[in-house]
Specification:
Arc Repressor Mutant, subunit A, SH3 type barrels, about 220 residues, 3 domains, about 40% helix, alpha+beta, two-stranded antiparallel sheet
């Protein structure tokens, strides 16, 4: 059994370490968890003593196999609960993250497996993030981002990079959600902004920042 705080640290380190050979820095962990660097250092020592990570002062932090397993299980529970909250309880995709942060710490393996089965073994959460299976394997992403698409490209929204409530509410206002179809009608060379048609009806302009944060699949 591990505390909520310990699981949150392991999950944060898992995300920050992806694509980095050096691992996660103390400052990056502190920023992600909104805490002080001194508090992070204390917790890293505790997790190191439990053989959950490899920590050397002034160097990057990496998870051990055991630490990574716990982190991925926590991610799995979080994303399954997000699916449940949206699909079964009618929560908006901008609402579910904070609730799932609480539910992800439930330790029952039987509950997690039954939840997965009840939901039909979903591969992606409401934001399009991949859900690892019970062995810790993530489905492979084949999407690109909207910013990489050219004029006259027709795409379908598969996920978002930015899962902040502000960004998700903005997309809702535009009528853009998972499964929405976009036609790129114009792309500005100057700033990367785009003029798009949404679901063959409404038209709008999207900034480069928005295009960067949308995962799409070309049709």
């Amino acid at each position: 059994m591990y505390t909520f705080t310990e699981e949150n640290y392991l999950k944060a380190i898992h995300f920050l370490s992806q694509g980095s050979e050096k691992g996660a820095t103390t400052n990056a962990i502190a920023e992600r968890l909104e805490t002080k660097a001194a508090s992070v250092s204390d917790m890293l020592k505790k997790l190191s003593d439990k053989d959950l990570l490899i920590y050397k002062k002034y160097q990057g932090v990496k998870l051990t196999a055991k630490g990574k397993e716990i982190a991925i299980k926590t991610v799995r529970k979080h994303r399954l609960w997000e699916v449940f909250l949206v699909d079964k309880l009618g929560f908006g995709w901008e609402e579910v993250h904070e609730v799932a942060e609480q539910l992800e710490h439930i330790q029952s393996v039987k509950l997690t497996d039954r939840l997965d089965s009840y939901l039909g073994n979903p591969k992606y959460d409401p934001h399009g993030d991949p859900i690892p299976d019970d062995a810790g394997n993530f489905p492979k992403r084949t999407e690109t981002t909207l910013e990489e698409c050219e004029t006259n490209s027709e795409v379908i929204i598969r996920g978002v990079k930015d899962t902040s409530p502000e960004f998700l509410r903005y997309l809702e206002k535009l009528g853009i959600g998972l499964g929405a179809k976009l036609m790129v009608e114009e792309k500005e060379e100057f700033d990367g902004s785009m003029r798009v048609k949404i679901n063959s009806t409404s038209e709008t302009s999207l900034s480069a920042a928005v295009c960067t944060n949308l995962f799409v699949k070309q049709l």
